[in-house]
Amino acid sequence: xINIVFGANxxxxxxIIIGVLLLYFLRIIRPELCRDEDIFFTTLxxxxxSILIIHGWRLDPILLFSQVLLVSVVLVAGWENIRLRGLIAxxxxxxxxYQTFILIxxxxxxxxxxxxxxx
Length: 119
Hints:
Layout: H1 8-29, H2 38-55, H3 61-95, E1 100-106, E2 112-118
Antiparallel strand pairs: 1-2
Organism: Coccophora langsdorfii
InterPro entries: Uncharacterised_Ycf66
Protein name: Ycf66
């Protein structure tokens, strides 16, 4: 039986789904921060959020409170993980003493040549 109630369970499921979709779209926005296992965690989060939305009406108050705590811990840990990934990426970028520039040259015959410049 599917019974969707617009209550706290719906809000929790929606928050989880939005959070994991942001984690997935991080691959497009900031690819240096993403990992391959993020797709696995996104899938698990979508399943978990869907279960909360569809079957969350069966939760008694103490189980709903435990789900609230679980969702908050997961979101805070995920936020900190992404922030630390950004700091690591920034530190790795700053450790390089040179910058690489790639110039793409298109000659008159339509042949593409790549020029790498190190500075």
